[in-house]
Design a protein that fits this description.
With about 525 residues, the chain is an all-alpha fold.
Length: about 525
């Protein structure tokens, strides 16, 4: 398997997902702006998303994928399919109970996330509508783990597009209908989320059937008991316990940040949400894609005892992340306002909202290397079925992040929350790297310093160009000329990319060296 090709496939589909997600946010920004109503929706949507990251893409995937990959490597496909059936049965019934409890307890959950919301009742109602989304997405995460283990990366990477299309369709077609019937049109977004989750689950079925691994979920008490008796279920649960704590740490930090932002005035939650949407382009295209490709490969290499291949896998991921993340971080820092002005400054989204969101983007951008680094380095521990070390690091980072919040938020407001998150991610990545090196799991290959010097010099050229373009033009004043403003933005970014890769080529860095096979 060509790792660069696999990562590129995931990245391309993730890019389409982020583009449609951006269109989704543009529709929301145009129709509702950054207001108390959008704050309520963002908090309500954040709750099932948090649980999705906690149980589905977080603790469950971190525990399930390495065990699944090792099972397939050492025990064969038949034993692996029995493991899948048992895990799917237990997961299904646990999710059903979680959704029922979530709908019933929505008022208390929303209060924990945003007690300062002006539209608290609206957030509770939308949370109840959207809570089943966590059930759909956890089953999608199970499917993605299976498909990625079988090296079928396309369907899991393409699936998120359906959520965005569903929300866009409901916002575009259903919102006016609701308004005509006296119903607040923002409820169309909640219905779009539920529909999107259902569609994402539905497309997994044919993909799983093609590899002969469609889970068979036990529906009777006897079937549940047999599933519970499977040793693989208990191995996954044992691994999930520390993983759940580790992911909980990150989500507790998000909960605290949401609570703080809800008290900073109307719009603060939305400014951070729109900034996060822009940040998701590099973090998803690089961090998520690399993580998806690395975990199954690293787990298989561990099962074979190939230490050199294991270290080489990690080295490849770190170099590719550095090559692409550093220029993105600089671009967000110096060119964030032009991008936000083009993407969101229309309709109800004001010039002041652009400026406030830009401050959040700049705060997040400082830690982009750390955010992506964690996605590359944490799989080095997960593949060893060591989740406790990343957990201990995450707990320490949580404490430090909240101390930084106490220092930065009174001074910088909502931008202080973004800055604290960035610095915490950077510390997290640094500690993970140190741990991998101390254990001998990662030994840097020769040539890092020449590689870094070339990347830094090319990034400096890119940053100088984008900074000059951002300073020369009144991007907010061009609101009435969206087409011209968009053309200027894409032209500036295109020239920046040509400059960056052109300088790298002149300095002798060949991109072909990243076409690693594994």
């Amino acid at each position: 398997m060509n790792l660069l090709k696999a990562a590129s496939t995931v990245s391309l589909w993730t890019l389409l997902s982020r583009i449609t997600g951006l269109v989704r946010e543009q529709l929301v920004a145009h129709a509702f702006g950054a207001s108390a109503m959008t704050d309520a929706f963002n908090i309500a949507f954040r709750i099932p998303n948090l649980l999705r990251r906690l149980f589905a893409e977080g603790a469950f995937s971190a525990a399930f994928v390495p065990i699944l990959a090792a099972s397939r490597e050492t025990e064969g496909d038949d034993a692996t399919r029995r493991l899948v059936d048992a895990v799917a049965t237990i997961l299904f019934w646990a999710l059903l109970a979680t959704c029922v409890l979530g709908v019933a307890g929505a008022p208390a959950i929303v209060w924990l996330f945003g007690a300062g919301l002006e539209e608290l009742d609206l957030a509770v109602l939308m949370t109840r509508w959207m809570f089943p989304y966590i059930g759909f997405m956890s089953l999608v995460a199970l499917s993605a783990g299976i498909l990625n283990t079988w090296k079928r990366f396309v369907v899991p990477a393409a699936t998120p597009v359906l959520l965005n299309l569903a929300v866009i369709g409901c916002a575009w077609g259903l919102a006016p209908v609701l308004e005509r019937h006296g119903i607040r049109p923002i409820h169309a977004l909640s219905l779009g989320v539920v529909l999107g989750g259902l569609l994402q689950l539905a497309v997994q079925v044919p993909a799983l059937r093609r590899i002969g691994c469609l889970p068979r979920i036990g529906l009777g008490v006897g079937a549940i008991r047999r599933a519970w008796a499977h040793d693989g279920v208990h191995r996954v649960l044992r691994q999930m316990a520390p993983a759940l704590l580790g992911v909980s740490v990150a989500q507790i930090s998000l909960l605290i940040n949401s609570q703080i932002a809800s008290h900073l005035g109307a719009g603060a939650v939305s400014w951070l949400t729109y900034a996060d949407r822009l940040m998701e382009f590099p973090t998803a295209l690089l961090g998520v894609a690399l993580s998806v490709v690395l975990i199954p490969g690293l787990s298989a290499l561990r099962a074979r005892g190939d230490d050199a291949g294991y270290s080489g896998h990690l080295d490849w991921g770190l170099r590719l992340a550095t090559l692409l993340a550093l220029p993105c971080a600089v671009a967000l820092g110096v060119f964030g306002l032009p991008m936000l002005a083009v993407l969101f400054h229309h309709g109800a989204f004001s010039a002041d909202a652009v400026r406030m969101t830009t401050l959040a983007v700049q705060g997040y951008g400082i830690g982009l290397m750390g955010l992506i680094g964690v996605k590359v380095l944490a799989p080095g521990f997960y593949a060893q079925q060591d989740i406790r070390t990343p957990v201990r690091i995450a707990v320490a980072v949580l404490v430090l992040t909240q101390l930084m919040n106490a220092a930065f938020v009174p001074w910088l407001g909502h931008a202080g929350l973004a800055l604290s998150t960035s610095l915490g991610a950077t510390l997290n990545a640094g500690w993970l790297l140190r741990g991998l090196r101390q254990r001998g799991l990662y030994r840097p290959l020769p040539g890092w310093w020449p590689f870094l010097s070339r990347v830094v010099l090319a990034t400096a050229v890119l940053g100088a160009w984008l900074g000059w373009v951002a300073w020369r033009l009144d991007w907010i004043g061009l609101q009435a000329h969206w087409g011209q403003r968009a053309g200027l933005m894409f032209g500036a970014l295109g020239v920046a990319a040509l400059l960056y890769f052109g300088v790298l080529r002149l300095l002798g860095l060949e991109l072909r060296q990243f076409a690693r096979r594994g």
